Amino acid sequence: MAKTAGHQGILAKVASKDYYSVEDILKTARDLDEDPFILILNELTDPQNLGSIIRTADGMGAHGIIIPKNRACGITPTVAKISSGAVEYVKVARVTNIARTIDELKKEGLWIIGADAEGKNYFEVDLTGSIALVIGGEDKGLGKLVKQKCDILVRIPLRGRITSLNAAVAASILGYDILRQRITSHGQTI
């Protein structure tokens, strides 16, 4: 049943994972009476990155994740394993065109924030309100059209010699700052 020995002696048989719609994700936020917080992963191809981001998205309270149908990793057994089960709780929508989806999210009032090395230091950016955080693929980043569609580009300041971070790490850093700002803007503590 298990294809690898790295399962820690535990297996579960689950039904194949269905994808949700973008509307399902927005409805989740509305039902909770919260500003939407969505992650958009543009052409992310590494299943370990996707699984890590799904797990982290659950922890940071994101309402869902949007991925493209083509040129990207979908939900696979590896993704499910790396997510440590979070794939059962986080809504993932698969869309034909990320740029068009961004336009639709803007019509719904979401602010589109792209992670890019040429962006503004994220320490200086208000990350509250209705937000879709766009993380680019491992090889090409956001891509030209998606980058143009973003309302603002933000960067994570790096002090070492390496000029970029792993996609899952960048999503985690920025996503948790979105959570921090949302909580503190409402007078709560983390």
UniProtKB/TrEMBL annotation:
Tell me the superkingdom of the source.
Bacteria
Recorded GO cellular component terms are: cytosol
* Stored InterPro entries: Alpha/beta_knot_MTases, rRNA_MeTrfase_TrmH, SpoU_MeTrfase, tRNA_m1G_MTases_N
The answer, when asked if Transferase is one of the entry's keywords, is yes
Which keywords label this protein? Methyltransferase, Transferase
Which region is the signal sequence? none
| GO biological-process terms attached to the record | methylation; RNA processing
Any idea which GO molecular function terms this record carries? RNA binding; RNA methyltransferase activity
Return the EC number.
2.1.1.-
Family indicated by similarity: Belongs to the class IV-like SAM-binding methyltransferase superfamily. RNA methyltransferase TrmH family.
What is the protein's given name? Answer: 23S rRNA methyltransferase
Identify the taxonomic lineage of the organism of origin: Bacteria, Bacillati, Bacillota, Clostridia, Thermosediminibacterales
